[in-house]
Design goal:
The protein has 235 residues and is mostly beta strands. 7% of the residues lie in helices and 38% in strands. The chain folds into 3 domains: 36 residues, no CATH class; 120 residues, Immunoglobulin-like, CATH 2.60.40.10; 44 residues, no CATH class. The strands form 3 sheets. A 5-stranded mixed beta sheet has the order 4-11-10-6-8, with no helix packed on it. Strand 10 and strand 11 form a beta hairpin.
């Protein structure tokens, strides 16, 4: 005996019953004969709406651009968060979403993501991941990641719309330090006096050691004062 659904066009709960007539063919044996009651099998099935991938919980957004802006070289690994949603198009009756493939292009060695194939995203339960930038090299970088998706593995599952994650960044060299420039505005003026005093008192962090280390001994201390003053008077 097989039981099936005659329509899956509308998501929701489907229920039914199969009644088995248990009346014995004869009353001569040990059975209950005509008094034998019917058996009833209650059957329930869920019809689910297809998964709906998006970068936005409230709209079907299939493209996301993350711009890291301009970052100084050797800053380390810089990461920014993003989320992928499976929009719950029919509350309680939407299939889970699967990430079935990730195809990188461009500078994908410098710009990366920790998104993994076979990740599962439940309806309205966002998957949080990171896009990252390696700042070891200078230059303008861009990369794209085409993300293939599908319904969870169920009868009737299909491929779902792909998502496109685009990443851009500019990595610039660390600017050369200007000695005695205690306020780091690339000029040595009287405006540097107060910041220099703060560096001497260890109440501030220099943007670069050379801005306060006037004598070049890798320390900012009283030995730097005369050289700092001399440079102000006769730059």
């Amino acid at each position: 005996m097989s039981v099936g659904l005659n329509s899956t066009s509308t998501p929701g709960l489907r229920t039914g019953a199969v009644v088995i007539d248990n009346t014995d063919l004869t009353s001569a044996g040990a059975g209950a004969g005509a008094s034998d009651g019917d058996d009833v099998l209650t059957i329930a099935a869920f019809v689910l709406e297809h998964a709906q991938p998006s970068f936005d919980q409230n709209a079907n957004t299939t493209t996301l651009l993350i711009d890291f802006g301009t970052i100084e070289q050797n800053t380390g690994l810089v990461s920014l968060p993003f989320e992928i949603y499976n929009r719950d198009m029919v509350a309680g009756f939407t299939a889970d979403l699967r990430i079935t493939g990730i195809s990188p292009a461009g500078d994908a060695a410098t710009l990366t993501t920790d998104l993994l194939v076979n990740s599962i995203i439940q309806p309205d339960a966002p998957l949080s991941r990171f896009a990252s930038l390696d700042t070891a090299d200078t230059g303008e970088f861009s990369a794209t990641f085409l993300i293939a998706t599908a319904d969870e593995t169920l009868p009737g599952a299909t491929a779902r719309p792909s998502l496109l994650l685009a990443l851009t960044a500019i990595v610039v060299p660390v600017p050369d330090c200007v000695p005695f420039d205690a306020n780091c505005d690339t000029m040595v003026t009287l405006d540097d006096v107060a910041p220099f005093v703060e560096l001497l008192l260890d109440s501030a962090t220099p943007c670069d050691i050379c801005t306060g280390d006037a004598n070049g001994d890798s320390m900012i201390d009283a030995l730097d004062i005369n050289l700092f003053v001399s440079h102000l008077i006769a730059p």
